[in-house]
Amino acid sequence: MTRRFTSLAGSGLLTMALLLAQTEARAQDDLLKTLEQQATDSARAEYVQATFKGTRVINGQSVETPGAGTMVFLISHRFGTLNSGAYNFFGLDQATIRLGLEYGLNDRLTVGVGRSSLEKTYDGFLKYRALRQSTGPRAVPVSVTLFASSALTSLKFTGEDRPDHSRLTYTYQALIARKFSPALSLQLMPTLVHRNFVNTRAQQNDVYALGIAGRQKLTKRVALTAEYYYLLPGNTADEFRNSLALGFDIETGGHVFQLHFTNSQGMIEKFFIPQTTGRWTKGDIYFGFNISRVFTLRSKE
Amino acid sequence: MKYFLVALSLLSWNLASAQSKYTTPSGVVTFFSSTPLEDIAANSNQVGAVFDMTSGQMAFTVPMKSFQFKRSLMQEHFNENYVESDKFPRATFAGKVVSFQPDVVRKAGPQPVQVEGDLTIHGVKRHIRVPGTLELKDNQLIAKSKFVVAPADYNIEIPALVRENIAKTVEVSVSLLCKPVITVAQP
User: Fold this and answer.
1) Which of A28, A148, A164, B35 satisfies CB 3.0 to 4.6 Å to B94 for a cystine?
2) What is the Cα gyration radius of chain A?
3) Where residue A181 sits, what CATH number does that domain have?
4) Residues A34 and A125 in one domain
């Protein structure tokens, strides 16, 4: 009887010790749970970051801007067409290039300048992040960036004199993007390209296009990208091709390398939207790359 | 009967503990990585922490996206490539002060303590034991700790190209100023 009682008492103590140990562990977890509860209750609005890796998808702009105080040096390069044959080393003998600098005045507004070897063109642009995709209370489903650029060709005119303003072309874009998952982002780009001067009466001064672009991450640092600009019906759409580009983004520290194939030779809107002549099916494909290097000129405090 | 007593004692213990909690929604945590090439520092002032004065148990949690870097690109890479904030939005710690005596904190000045528990970063939970100090001042609990964390321990992969820029171990400092929780009077 006594023995039975002691064993019972013993098991009772053991249970108690176990229970205590359990409660202790549970108490810690409970503390954590309470905290997490509070944290989710007061969740703050958070901007969705890195919809795209760079400020360009391929040829065209992405919703991304460099951020306050950050300067991006961008080297864009397109070789000749793949179908130019072994004599031209499949296009590698020829090259067009654009050198660009862009600087984030603040987290929303960016200014940029560039110079393309094609038609000796200078360009300058402003890019403004009007809306940023965010989570939390009052979530915003998409990011919207507005883009305006002007391009000036400094090529010597042959033949009759033309006024200087005929050298100018303007581009206006609304870039609307959504990062659907950490890996997948899509972007729509309604675009207007206004050319002050066109060669014939039939050619359009105003060319409208709708672009669509996407990026799918393959690994944390490598992503597949695609970009397509559809020319709205008109003379330009009849005479020229829609621009299509496919490529890879490879990111390493402060650099982003973008390698791609495209049927457009130029690297600014006035070239690749209304002046694309290459046909993918005929092998008029330009291999090219963009390399960006980021410099922090002014750091956040 | 015996179990009833056990249950009762546990219940009362829980009640007692509920009245002596200190908490903050805005603790500060900073980390610092130093290499010959580059110093990287970030801080967050959104640490949620709670400390139980009777048992010495504590927990804290910090949203990874709340870390602020000097360079926006670093911040982006931190979230996108290293700690994968979309997948693992928070770092947490749940643990207790080793052989805790409530009296210790009531002494003047910061009192050295050892804290042990589970630190979870990047979805990896590890048992750690770190030094720290506790101080009760004007009915506020000041908790401080400084320790090192190795990114590799938490499966945070660093690519070869930037390996020289990121230190093997990162120094973490935690500083919490906790206010007592005002509990509703027990019936």
Assistant:
1) A28
2) 28
3) 2.40.160.40
4) no
Which candidate in B86, B119, B120 is best for mutational testing of the A interface (most A CBs within 10 A)? B86
Domain count across chain A: 2
Considering only alpha carbons, which residue of chain A is nearest residue B116? A28
Chain A residue with CA closest to B85: the answer is A182
The ipTM, to two decimals, is: 0.71
Look at residue A99 and tell me if it is in a domain.
Answer: yes
**Shared domain check, A266 and A180:** yes
A122, two tokens: 């200078």
Interface of B with A in 107-126 (CB under 8 A): 117
Question: Are residues B10 and A27, on separate chains, in Cβ contact within 8 Å?
Answer: no
How confident is the model over B62-83, as pLDDT tens digits?
A: 999 999 998 888 888 899 889 9
Residue A260 makes CB contacts below 8 A (sequence gap 6+) with: A58, A225, A245, A246, A247, A248, A287, A288, A289, A290
pTM reported for the whole predicted model: 0.80
- The pLDDT tens digits for B147-166 are 999 999 999 988 887 888 88
Instruction: Pick the residue of B6, B15, B45, B73 with the most A CBs within 10 A to test the interface with A by mutation.
Output: B73
Please answer yes or no on whether B73 and A68 come within 8 Å at the CB atom. no
Instruction: Supply the DSSP string of B20-46, one letter for each residue.
Output: SEEEEEEEEEEEEEE-SS-EEEEEEEE
Instruction: Tell me if A301 is assigned to some domain.
Output: no
Q: Tens of pLDDT along A82-136?
A: 998 888 888 888 899 999 999 999 999 999 999 999 999 999 999 999 999 998 8
User: In this structure, are A148 and A33 located in the same domain?
Assistant: no
Residues contacting residue A73 through CB under 8 Å, at least 6 positions apart: A100, A101, A292, A293, A295
How far is residue A46's CA from residue A41's CA, in Å, rounded to a whole number? 14
A24 is a domain residue: yes
Chain A residue numbers touching B165 (CB-CB < 8 A) = 253
